[in-house]
Amino acid sequence: MENVKSQIKEGYIFDYISGQQVKASPEEIEATQVFSKVLVEDYGYPKDYIQTRPQFHVKVRPSDVKKEYPVDIAVFSDAERTDDSVFLIVECKKKNRKDGRTQLENYLTLSKANLGVWFNGEERFYLLKQNTEDGRVLFKEIPNIPKYGEKLEDIGAIKREDLLVTHNLKSTFKAIRNYLAANAIGATRDEVLAQQLINLIFCKIFDERFTSPKSIVRFRVGLNESNVEVRGRIEKLFSDVKAKYKEVFTNEDSINLDDNSIAYIVGELQNYCLVEAERDVLADAFETFIDHALKGGQGQFFTPRNVVKMMVEILDPDDSEMLIDPACGSGGFIIESLRYIWNNIITRYRQMGWSESAIMEEKIDVANKCIRGIDKDYFLSKIAKSYMAIMGDGKGGVFCEDSLERPENWSTKTRQKIHMGDFDVVLTNPPFGSKIPVTGEDKLKQYELAHKWKNKKGTNDWEKMKLAEKEAPQILFIERCFQLLKYGGRMAIVLPDGVFGNNQLGYIRKYIKDRFRLVAVIDIPLETFMPNTGTKTSILIVQKMKREDIPVDYPVFMCVAETCGHDRRGNIKDEDDIALISSQFKIWAKENNFSFKKYGK
Q: Which H helix or E strand runs over 455?
């Protein structure tokens, strides 16, 4: 693979369909290559039926002999790829929606294709060409295009078992966001739009969970259905969601988008299975709708799924342990932990001959008893609570509180479920930043790390001084996580690199070293949290132990990941070192006779 990469010309990329080198223009990277992959991976079209390079051409006008208009992507009904067999044209030019539609209509008029897609990397729509008896050509926007082997009339007639698991819904959510921004009536603020999208996402997830495999899903829009009909079915679905999850949704919660917007969102999402999605689809949606300008100031950057998965696999939680994320956001860590624990439950109890209903009962019991999450943002905590509920319960373990506040100031319900020193596992990515300091003497004096510290010259020791007036949240979260853990408990936390190397923060490293056994330090690439933030971070993995039990000399797993599965713009790339780390950690642990279960009990 290295030899192939070294042969590519500077400023070029390999075309996904043809394998040829093409100029790495923004249109090519963000639109043509993205949709080419979608056609193959999500719609199932064989590469042999698709032409990108050399480009398929259509005539400028019917009387022309020479075909001058190049088409970005052409899809054919067979591998011969003739003029007569082209049925779908995709245009990926960086135009606005109006100009894009005009160009696509021209291409469809001058070709045998009757289906068209316009996609510029941020917006998309689907057109059906219809020829009338009097010779006119009409165009109709449709909710989606057929998958390979389907007919037009099959659009929307989707059985639960036919839903597709996709690797990436970023482009879909981006298209939805831009459609709503331009067309939604009555709701234009990002947070309002995000809440509406979340409501629809949970309608879809509910539909997936409670529709039998052979039955047609309710979350759909057919080719000839009116948008009013679609709205009626979705509103009934949302009523069912609210009735089942009364602890999550109130009677006042509603779907307030206009009919056209509802139908557009349903059409974009109806082919996919969200319950089994490989990425945290809610975080993807939220990142798309609540951008850096709106939420970045609060330090709320979502942890990529591959990072979450790696941290969970290293800590290896089981169904007998209590687990918490005290800065849970939309629930990425607690959802992935629940999936991990459930997979182990399924494997173990199927081997023991348990029935599927008994296994499901055990899974729900574990979700309720073992998983906890806290976030001070009401909207985020509601997303996490909703997601847990739809996944299979556990909704009663997520709370809207300030994790750094005195526990006695939490609500009664929170105090009943979360106690200091009760947890076996902490997984978290706390908010970062000096721009969002924690203030207030009563809150700060809970923490040793909220004091000023003075380095004793000539030594590696630090002297605690007076209480500071403010402190960055990520520093206090280290101590709050220590308080939450029981002895022998383990933690994986994302921290900015300054904690690991800044000379002025040596007192934090001493605090950690005196209270934890260092297990691993994992350096992850700068691009990991891009495009949301360029903060350089590493992952610290430790085990809480009494000072006298911490070995004097012991091995530590050290790792540098050079790739993270995407580039600085967030575009997906194949190279992902992060996905390999947990298996390497397990090899290291075996070679060094290390086990979390062995120490600190």
A: strand 451-455
Q: Which of 242, 241, 262, 240 is nearest to 252 (CA)?
A: 242
Residue 486 DSSP SS3: strand
Beta bridge partners of 12: 23
In this prediction, residue 601 carries a pLDDT of 43
- Predicted local confidence at residue 279, as pLDDT: 53
Tell me the CA distances in angstroms from 112 to 57, 107, 109, 196, 411, one per residue in order: 12, 9, 8, 39, 65
Gap between the Cα atoms of 498 and 482, Å rounded: 20
Please give the C-alpha separations between residue 334 and each of 53, 288, 340, 372, in angstroms, as whole numbers: 45, 21, 10, 7
145 and 117 Cβ atoms separated by less than 8 Å: yes
Annotate 303-314 with three-state secondary structure: CCHHHHHHHHHH
**Cβ neighbours of residue 237 closer than 8 Å, sequence gap 6 or more:** 203, 206, 207, 218, 219
Which residues make Cβ contacts (< 8 Å) with residue 434, sequence separation at least 6? 472
Give the integer Cα–Cα distance in Å for 313 and 519: 14
- Return the structure tokens found at 354: 């348990």
- Decide: 110 and 69 in contact? Cβ < 8 Å: yes
Its sign, for the CA torsion 560, 562, 567, 570, is negative
Say what the pTM is: 0.73
Give the three-state DSSP class for 484: helix
The CA distance from 158 to 216, in Å, is 5
Helices (H), 211-324: 227-244, 259-269, 281-289, 292-295, 305-315
Three-point CA angle 94, 182, 293, nearest 5°: 85
Query: Rounded CA gap, 21 and 11, in Å?
Result: 10
Residues in the chain: 601
Query: Is the pLDDT at 469 greater than 50, yes or no?
Result: yes
Half-sphere exposure of 286 (CA within 13 A, CB side): 26
Sequence-distant (6+) residues with CB within 8 A of 201 are 269, 274, 281, 282, 285
**Residue 294: pLDDT over 50:** no
Integer Cα distance of 191 and 199 in angstroms:
12
Query: Mean pLDDT over all residues of the chain?
Result: 89
- Per residue in 325-380, pLDDT (tens digit) is 999 988 889 989 999 999 999 999 999 999 999 998 999 999 999 999 999 988 88
Name the DSSP letter for residue 217. P
Contact 426, 493 (CB under 8 A): yes
Confidence of residue 40 (pLDDT cuts 50, 70, 90): very high
Q: Do 36 and 88 form a contact (C-beta atoms < 8 A)? A: no
Q: In what order do the strands lie in the sheet with 537-544?
A: 398-400, 371-375, 323-325, 423-428, 485-496, 537-544, 516-523, 557-560
